[in-house]
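Supplementary Note 3. Input sequence used for the single-chain structure prediction.
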Amino acid sequence: MDHQICLQLGSNLGDRRENLRRAIQDITEKVGKISQQSAIYQTEAWGETEQPDFFNQSILAVTTLPPHEVLTTILDIEKDMGRKREKKWGPRLIDIDLLFYDAVIIETPTLTVPHPQIPFRNFVLIPTMEIFGDFIHPVFNLSVEELYLRCRDEGTVYLRDDD
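The predicted structure, written as discrete structure tokens, is reproduced below.
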């Protein structure tokens, strides 16, 4: 059975654009077919701010994998690309977050879907709104666009139009 997932990609080390491209290629091969992808946005680091800006992008994909297998697979992709989890909110070659899995709500010790930080982060909301703005968040019962309009995050998000 096919499931629609929304993933958020981020990179602030190395060739950020290439890291996103490679992650999308690996997701296509290991998770499922990409149906849409947002533009790339440059954003200030969150939490630990003394580090390079991130390139962020949201993608929609279709998968047959169950949610926990999607999580395991994207964590494996991060590891294969050289991600090291040394410091919370620290710099990283690649970060892949599972934002939505259909309209399913999951709360387990290893996985929470929808991702709990979606409503609080412009760097997630803006690229996600571009491709999935009408989607209704199953916990808050608001569209992604409505969540963005209510978000109090003051972090700046710049469209990278230098493709």
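The chain has four helices and eight strands. Residues 3-159 form a domain with the Alpha-Beta Plaits fold (CATH 3.30.70.560).
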